[in-house]
Amino acid sequence: MSRPPTPDQPSESTVTDRSPRRDSACATDTDASAARPTRRRLLAALGGLAALGSVAGCGGRNGRDRTNTDTSNPTTDASEDRGPVPETVGPWPQARADAGNTGVVAASGPTDDPSLRWSVTSAGAVGATVAQATGTATPGERVYVAGEDGRVAAVGPDGTRKWLTELPEARFPPAVGAGRVVVPVGDALVVLDASSGDRVRSVELPADGFDTPTVAGDRALVGTFSGGVVGVDLGSGTVRWQAGAPSRAHPPVVADGTAYVTARRWEPDDGDRPGVIAAVDVESGEIGWEVGLDGEPTAPPAVRDGVVYAGTNRGRVHAVDAADGGRRWRVPVGEWVTRGPTAAADGVYVVILGEGPAKLDPGGSVAWRSNAGGGTNPVLAKDLVVVGTEDGVAAVDRDTGRTRWRAETDAGVEFDVRVADGRVYAGDRYGTLSALDVGGGEQVWRFPFRPTRMPGPVVGPRTVAGGSRDGGTYDLLATEGTEFPLSGGAATRGVTPAVLDGRDLPDEDPPTGTADGDLLFGDGTRTAGESTEGAAPAETLLGGGVDGSLFRVRTVEYGDSPTDGLGPTPAPTPTPGPDEPTATATPHIDFPRAAPAWTTTLDAEIRSPVTYAGGGAYVGTAGGVVAVDPRDGSERFRVSLGGVVDGAPAVRDGRLFAVTAGGWLVGIDIDAERQNRIDWETALDVGSGAGPTVVDETAFVAGDGGRISAHTTDGDPVWDRPLDADVAGGTAVTDARVVVGTGASEVVALDRADGSVSWRADARGPVRGTPAVAGGSDSTVYAADHGGTLSAFDAADGSVRFRRRIGRWLDAPPAVGHGAVFVADQTGRVYAVVGE
Q: Which backbone phi and psi does 778 adopt, to 5 degrees?
């Protein structure tokens, strides 16, 4: 067959282009951003040097420059004495069950009478924050939303998306001004064109950690976590000055060429001055004056009519003169001023811990206090004070403090709301941007800013694990959902790991848990001192994060493997018999963190789950694929494909298969004798975010536009079937069927031989994850949908075996093991569904 030309490397500003690319290139992976703190937990960033792939020359079967590899340690080389090569363990040890991405296992899952065995919040939510130009908002102006997974989008006044850009590790709300959107990313600011989303420049900052910048004309003023305030020229990308270090500075507020800053002093002069208000010249960075506070400031200051206001964690509001810092007044208002102040002509508004908004008149007297709640800075709109709350948005009357209206959102609102053009805009923890009428709180529109693809769980002999959306990797005991601590996990968004055995790792001393040294699991019959002969093999997780970090760490080695299959959790009885569950919960055990076998960091942004086969671990990156030795984390080789590889690579018979987001299916020889070179590549006409499935001599691909195709493992076409609906997940392939889920709320089974439709079955919402198939000759297809329902279908004819509503937005692919189906939803919860 003829070989198509090479795809281009995507631009740095966006990786959302799904069109095929046909210009020749030989490129390296894009740099990964630094690790960041996350909302749910802050895991230790991985250490170790980045293993760099050397340029070994580019070439494929047709002689074109294509491949960037390091073949000094080929995957199949067993000559080096690094110990035994581990194997995968467990019923569903990697993202799509096996290295071929088949999504099919012989073990059975539930087929009727489904019930929820357990659910645990561990997978991590993806919150949304919203920003808008301040002071210059005009009717119909766009708002801008950023997700905690690195996406930034512009949304029009009608709730439709105008552009989308992916910036790995973008955080906090962006800032908007002068036709720019300024986004904190790692240790830099990324400047986007507000009209198109195109990346204009990136500016590295001289201090670690920062909040939303303040845009004032051509300046961005950044309050950092340890380096005071940094002034950046947005036009040139130059850092102009740094002032106030060492301190943790909140975003400045600018008035008449002066930036007013509240900051926590890391090295206070004395115990009575742990915080300060300072006036900084916007152009030069010179500090005009500085006034000590009697507590730590909790939010940016407010400026109005020549007065600067600040609140502290000791429950006081301070007012000082903007010209010279002279103190006007200091008033106690509650236990803790959590957010605010916001200043207006009629008074100063703050939020008090455990209560809600409160108003002070310009002289400092408390006018009213409200119990409406609130966790964001108060925003003023007409005659209202608007705040985000744990369940939505609340609006309080500015004159009386009475709650005028409440509006529920999908989840709590953690970042500031915005008000413009008669609407309140709020982003919540589950990634939904809501537009509300400012007069009564009625919903105008909702913009679900949640990713269409979510990492699914994997299942080992004892545990269920997966990549968390807001940082790291979770690991749960399969029988009851207890979460175990992991060390060495990535601090950034985790990818789906692989479960390996631990025979090649040195033994560790068993932990002790209860006072007498016993570790109790389930029925309490197993202790740390008992023999583990015949128990399931020791598990290790090989995982990582989108910043390029990789690790391998031992999971829990105690407790029985659920070899008999999981059934419904029995209800305890008040007076239990010898064989009945007790009324007392299993004792809590604080398990120690297991030391990682190794950690390393690739100089590449990891985009796919981990695929494991033949002693090698493979990940898709922002520019191709990378292979790693599981024994020590050393990089075996990397191949640049000139495009993003979002889906798990498939491995079979010494060859790796990958699909790029630009629409190319590529076959790569990974045997030592073949030197890890691209063997062939073929254009798919549509992009794909899911890895291929390789069974026998055929590779199956689900394109994003709903085009399902089959190719030989030499790249030749076999059949091509367009569906009338979008497909976000991949294919699950049995002996007779190719099964996919669609955006039209269907599960479709195609004939494996010719691609004709064998059956269609309705789901309760769009199916965005790859279905799972289990059960051997009497197979069941499990599909989780965006409506929150897990459905089971007969694999032969598509008839419904059961439906069970269990969560919200089940966009992750399910996994089957121990007689149960495990799935995660976009709220960050993991579920175990069992049968009778």
A: -110, 65
155 Cα distance to chain centroid: 21
Neighbours of 23 (CB within 10 A): 10
The C-alpha angle 388, 423, 139, rounded to 5 degrees, equals 140
Q: Report the distance separating Cα 197 and Cα 798, nearest Å.
A: 43
- 672 SS3 class: helix
Q: Which of 240, 247, 203, 254 is nearest to 224 (CA)?
A: 247
- Model confidence at 56, in pLDDT bands (50, 70, 90)? very low
How are the residues of the chain apportioned to helix, strand and coil, as percentages rounded to the nearest 5? 0, 40, 60
Of 592, 591, 595, residue with least CA distance to 520: 591
Tokens of 670: 């990974």
- With CA atoms as reference, report the closest residue to 757 among 744, 746, 748: 748
| Alpha carbons 772 and 109: distance in angstroms, whole number | 10
Q: Which of 399, 454, 392 is nearest to 424 (CA)?
A: 392
Backbone phi, then psi, for 525, in 5-degree steps?
-90, -5
Gap between the Cα atoms of 132 and 696, Å rounded: 53
Please say if the pLDDT value at position 377 is more than 60: yes
Give the whole-angstrom CA distance, residue 774 versus residue 157.
46
d(CA 577, CA 406): 50
CA pair distance 220, 207, nearest whole angstrom: 14
Please give the Cα distance from 317 to 742 (Å, whole number): 55
Position 269 confidence tier, pLDDT thresholds 50, 70, 90: low
Instruction: Compute the distance between CA of residue 467 and CA of residue 496 in angstroms, rounded to an integer.
Output: 5
Q: What are phi and psi of 776, to 5 degrees?
A: 65, -130
Whether residue 86 is predicted with pLDDT greater than 50 in this model: the reply is: yes
Residue whose entry in the numeric block shows the structure tokens 């004819």? 797
Distance CA 413, CA 429 (A): 6
Angstrom CA distances, 552 to 90, 266, 443, 497, 609, stand at 16, 36, 46, 9, 14
Dihedral sign for Cα 806, 116, 513, 516, please: positive
Beta-ladder partners of 310: 318
How long a stretch of residues is the chain? Answer: 836
> How many Cα atoms are found within 13 Å in the side-chain-facing hemisphere of 107?
19
- Token pair in block for residue 132: 């808008």
Q: What is the DSSP letter of 676?
A: T
Residues whose CB is less than 8 angstroms from the CB of residue 637 and which lie 6 or more positions away in sequence, other chains included: 53, 69, 70, 71, 73, 74, 75, 626, 627, 670, 676
210 within 8 A of 224, measured Cβ to Cβ: yes
Q: What is the mean pLDDT of residues 426-438?
A: 93
CA distance 647 to 662: 12
- Predicted TM-score of the model (pTM): 0.78
Question: Using an 8 Å Cβ cutoff, are 723 and 690 in contact?
Answer: no
| Cross-strand pairs, 597 | none
Query: Rounded to whole angstroms, how far apart are CA atoms 303 and 327?
Result: 14
| Domains identified in the chain and CATH numbers | 104-124+453-834 (2.130.10.10)
Q: 543 and 495 in contact (C-beta within 8 Å)?
A: yes
DSSP 775-826: SGGG-EEEEE-TTSEEEEEETTT--EEEEEE-SS---SPPEEETTEEEEE-T
Provide the token pair at 473: 């990797």
Tally helices (H) and strands (E) across the chain. Answer: 0, 65
Structure tokens at 620: 């898709």
SS3 228: coil
Give the separation between CA 210 and CA 203, rounded to whole angstroms: 13
Per-residue b/e over 574-608, b at no fewer than 16 CB within 10 Å?
Answer: eeeeeeeeeeeeeeebeeeebebbbbbbbbbbbbb
Compute how many other C-beta atoms are within 10 angstroms of the C-beta atom of residue 354.
10
Does 336 score more than 80 pLDDT? yes
What is the DSSP secondary structure assignment for residue 673, as one 8-state letter? Answer: G
Quick: pLDDT tens for 808-832.
Answer: 889 999 999 999 999 999 888 999 9
